[in-house]
Amino acid sequence: MLAMILANFEPFGSLPAWMYHAQSPPPGHTFNPEWPGITWVDLIFPFFIFSMGAAVPFSLSRKLDSGLSIIKTNFSIIQRGLTLLAFAIFAAHARPHSLDVSERAADWIGPLLFGVMFMIWGRFPWKLSGKILLALRWAGLAIALSIFIIAGHKDGAAFSLFRSDIILKVLSTVLVFGSIIWVISRYNITYRIVLLLLLLAIRLGYSVESGWLYQLGSQTEISVWSNFVKSVIPAESDKHFSWIYNFRWLFQWQFLKYLFIFIPATIVGDRIREWTIDKTDCVKFGWGKLRNFAIVILMVSVIISTLICLQGRWVSVLVGLSVVMALAGFMLLNKPQKRTKKCCGICLTGAWPGI
Q1: How far apart are the first and last CA of the chain?
Q2: Alpha carbon separation from 56 to 49, 110, 263 (Å, rounded)
Q3: Contacts of 124 (CB under 8 A, 6+ apart)
Q4: CB of 202 within 8 A of CB of 123?
Q5: Cα dihedral sign for 164, 168, 174, 176?
Q6: How many CB atoms lie within 10 A of CB 101?
Q7: Cys-Cys with 229: which of 37, 74, 154, 245 at CB 3.0–4.6 Å?
Q8: Taking a C-beta distance cutoff of 8 angstroms, is the pair 116, 140 a contact?
């Protein structure tokens, strides 16, 4: 979280190039997707998705273990995803200095919207009845919508569901699909691995712009429903009701590529959770401090060397280093003895059918 804040607020132009996104280098900081390279700033979002995926087994297991059905659990997942999407829309509209108001008005609208945010999504330390909480949320929504509709934005755009914070929107999509996948494959990791291979095949097919996968993935409307709605709604009102048939504000297929981070993270979360719950029948001795230290150095070296080589486009060097580090990792991690190091081995196979 601190790294995300630093990357968002670091001053432009006064720091080295590796302190910024590789595709937005100084001094102009103009985004160019064709510019090669990767920096630590580009890794913050993947790290956040990985952390979110690793936390899913902990949060959802409590619900399932308490007796909540799979259907109700999936419903709560969808509800949470829609809540996050609503916050993404709110965040994109709630930037005070992008609203079409005077600077003096922007100074007090900012704190007001911050308070409204807590009215809608806040969890209060004192106990309140359900009716009071519901009234607070509806009142907060009414205040926020009134400000967004009346003020408008400096770019001339009115309030729109299509205007949302891209980061939060991606997180809402990944959270819903990734969590439901975990619920379905809770006791069989093999299903998740097979699904990753299927996603990889779809990803490769989607890269061909003339292919049917790309054409299907580019669609955000259902033609039958779209034609029906357009025949009912007057043409001059289409801009206000296009969200009814154009689902781009709700979901975009290309966001599913982040499941390549989320799904492996759920596997890691499963292992950690199993280790924290059941520590029986495991050997009490380990590798020793020197070997553990070597493993830590290797893990850090993998990240640093990958960043440097991708930033410099030293592909051949990176391939060679990756082979060497993979062999070193195999040697260092061979024959694990403690449960923390055996989390993918025989200690857990009894609790994981299908492995």
Answers
A1: 35
A2: 11, 33, 10
A3: none
A4: no
A5: negative
A6: 19
A7: 245
A8: yes
Tokens of 292: 């553990």
3-state secondary structure of 221: strand
CB 100 within 8 A of CB 151: yes
Residue 339 contacts by C-beta under 8 Å, 6 or more apart in sequence?
Answer: 275, 279, 282, 283, 347
149-182: per-residue pLDDT in tens?
Answer: 888 787 777 788 888 889 999 999 999 999 999 9
Residues belonging to the chain: 355
Express each pLDDT in 7-64 by its tens digit: 878 887 778 888 888 888 887 888 887 777 788 888 889 999 999 999 999 999 988 9
pLDDT digits (tens, 9 = 90+) for 219-267: 777 778 888 888 888 777 777 778 888 888 888 888 889 999 999 999 9
Residue 344's pLDDT is what?
Answer: 43
**Residue 250, φ and ψ in degrees, nearest 5:** -95, -40
Instruction: Quote the CA–CA distance of 314 and 309 in Å, as a whole number.
Output: 5
Residue 250 contacts by C-beta under 8 Å, 6 or more apart in sequence? 85
Task: Please say whether the beta carbons of 196 and 278 come within 8 A.
Answer: no
Looking at the DSSP bridge assignments, the partners of residue 153 are 99
What are residue 246's DSSP bridge partners? 221
Distance (Å) of CA 131 to CA 75, 135, 136, 238: 22, 6, 9, 36
Q: Which residues contact 258 (CB under 8 A, 6 or more apart)?
A: 46, 49, 170, 173, 174
Measure the CA–CA gap between 103 and 125, rounded to whole angstroms. Answer: 34
Contact indicator for 29, 20 with CB cutoff of 8 Å = yes
> Which pLDDT tens digit goes with each residue over 98-122?
788 777 777 788 888 889 998 898 8
Nearest to 49 by CA among 305, 203, 266, 276: 266
pLDDT of res. 327: 94
Residue with the two structure tokens 């009102």? 237
The pLDDT of residue 53: 94
Q: What is the DSSP string of 291-336?
A: HHHHHHHHHHHHHHHHHHHHHHT-HHHHHHHHHHHHHHHHHHTSS-
Q: What does the CA dihedral 130, 135, 138, 143 come to, rounded to 10 degrees?
A: -140
